[in-house]
Every structure is written in C-alpha cells, then in structure tokens.
Amino acid sequence: MSRERPKKGALPPAQENIEKLEKVVEEGNYYGAQQMYKSISARYVAAQRFSEAVDILQSGACNQLKHGQVTCGAELAALFVETLVKGRFPYDDETLGRVRKIYKAFPRIPMPQQLGDLDDMQQLSETLGEAKTCVEGCSSFLKSALKWSKEFGAPKGGAPEIHVMLANYIYFESPEVDMVRVSYHFVRGNNPKEFASTLVNFMGKCYPGEDDLAIARAILMYLAVGNLRDANILVDEIKKQVESKQLDFPKSNLIQFINFLLQTLLRDALPLFNMLREKYKSSLDREPTFHELLDEIAEKFYGVRRRNPLQGMGMFGEIFKRPSGDQVMGVRNMKTYPGEEHVDISRGKAEAHIGIAQLQIVEVHSPCHEQRPRMPRPDIKLQELGTRNLENPNVCHSRWHVEMAGGTMRLHHIVAFTVLAFNNGRLGHSKIPNVAAD
Fold this sequence. Notes:
Elements: H1 14-26, H2 30-46, H3 50-66, H4 70-86, H5 93-105, H6 118-151, H7 160-173, H8 179-187, H9 192-203, H10 211-224, H11 228-244, H12 253-264, H13 270-279, H14 281-284, H15 289-302, H16 315-320, E1 332-336, E2 342-346, E3 349-354, E4 357-362, E5 380-389, E6 395-404, E7 407-409, E8 417-422, E9 428-431
C-alpha cells in the first residue's frame, strides 16, 4: 500500500509544534525533543513548507543550546542550514538574522581562573573538553552557513558577517588561540575595527615577539586580497585603541616594513617594493608565509606573475620536465601529476607530490617514535626540520628538507614538504598550498 504525500493543509501551523517542543525541552527530555524536532521539521520540508521548517529548526537549535545541549543544538543548526539550501533561501538580512540568533545561542565556556588541587585540574580538563565541543559545533555550523551564502547571493568568499562571527567565536572560545585562522576569517569579513580590537586583546596576553607578527600577518593578508583600504583602517584603529588603553604599540623592523609597505602600495613603485623586501628579508623570514603573501601582493598591485615552481631550479627544473617514468639521478618512480600537491604516508612509504612531479621516497619512519628516517638512497637525504604535536596525540606533524645529489629543492622557502605520519602506519596526507621552490 503506497503512502500519499501529505497535503500542505494536513500540517498545523509551525508555532503549535514549536510551543509543544519547547515544553518537552523544559522538562529535560532533550533526546526525545531532538527526535521530534528532526521528524516534525522533515514533514514540513516534505510538504515544501520550508519557512515553517526553518522556524522549527531554529527554535530547536536555540532551545537545546540554551540548555547546554551543544551536540543536539549543533545537529539542529546543521539541519537548519540544509533546509535553507533546500528552500533556496536568499542571502539577505532576514536569513542572516536567523543565522546570527543560532550563533549567539552557542554557549561561552568560562575558564577556571585559579588552579590549586587535583579537583581543579579535573575541572579544567572537563571545561577544556566542553569548550572544544562548542567551538567544533559552532565552527561547523558557521562554515556550512558560509557555503549556503556563497550559493545564494553573498560575495564570492561567503557572507562577510558570518566570517566575523566565526573569527570572534574561534578567538574568544577556543582553548588554544589560532591567530592565523582568526585572521583569515576577519580579513574576509567586513569589520576591520572589530579585528583591531581582537588584535589589541591578543597583544595583552601573547608571548613577547608575537604581537608584531600578528599585526604584520593581518596587514599582509588584507593586502594579499587587494584590500588596501581595510589594511590602513586596521593599522589606524590599532594605534587608537593602544593609545586609549595606554599600551605600547610594537616597535620592530617588521612593523617598520609594514609602515613603509603601506605607503609604497599607494604608488606605482615596484622597484621600491622589491627593495623593501630585500632590505627587510631577515624580519620577513620570521614567518615563511610572509614571502608567499608578498608574492600575492606583488601580483595584485603590480601585475607581477607568480614564479613557476620549477623556475630557478636549474638542472632540477629540467629533470621534472622529462617524460613520466624516467629514472633520474637515482630518484625512484618519477611521474607527473599536474596540480597534485600533497604527501601520502602508507605502509612505510612516502609519495611526495611536489608541483607537477611525484617523488617516491621509501623507509620514512614516524618521528613520534623518536626515530630518524633511514637514508632511502645514496643521493636522497631527509632532514627533519621540526615537529609539533597536533590535537590527536597519535599524529605528528613534521617538516622535511630534501637534498638530492648535492642540490636542494625547497617548498615554502624552508620546507620541502609536509608529512602527516600516523603511529600505526595508516594513510595520512597534507595539502600544501601555493607551492614554490627556491
């Protein structure tokens, strides 16, 4: 016996269900309410009553989050965005307001101020876990909202308002602040003054030497997308806020470079731009990504095409242009893979896709076990440049330097490629953006 599709008139007004479900949540039956929110909203979607479906899901997400049910709230928030897509809701103030209400409902977890005994440490561990869950849930929701906005009328990079929400939540709620990620979203947002406030806040609690890096990174990221106006607004606003709070604005060669750079970009002065890069190279070397950002800036403001990854490599550049399958200089399994830029670790072997060339290196061991890589071939050496732990303790993130037959190939100016190695030998890979060789 076939089921008929429910008629539009068969469902009551959404408000009736919203009020009923609110009572279920108030009674503490969070799981039961969750299943009802999902099943009832699905009926409205099936009846193509999308506005009422998003009303129910928005109410459900906010109610669950208000009661501390972050996992449930995040799930309903994700369904809310899915329904925006199904109903083809446009990016406008009304829909953006709905997104903002759910965003504001995500909890803010206060961290313990003093730690004295074992109970305090246990509390800290639990609090950190709660904060991480909140950040993951809110970030996932806002990222999906960004995708919706791109498809339905927002600028190419996604709704700038949502980028600002995401940057703020990551900065203030993450147990460990990632200023690169925070800056990425602020730069794609529409509020440089709020970005300035965040940077001033960061300056008050960061380690010595991190403040000028954070400011320089923010300015260069703005300039790399061609936004000179907001870069200048950011600098001016930081100076105003620092002065009003009687703080010291960082004074370093890097900040001096930024000041000169902002003046240089106001005119057609490519030789001066290049001279500044050369003069302040040692300061820029403090963070390798600065060179990549400056390459982007040169392209945006002066039309300088980014260098081909194989240029400047001499004999190595010619090697990588040879037909696939060549055995060249003892390098095994040289193949071309246009556009591939990643590293795979599997069963003791590493395949490094560098630019358009694949270089297979054997006998790579996980640095997590304090081991060093064996010499895979007489003419290929691997040197570990550094290791840092990721969130997963079973994963290590290492940077390697590759030397081949007396020559050196580098990516990101100091790094040949990035390896994600798992202790148990399972497959892992890491994307490498903006591959460049020097």
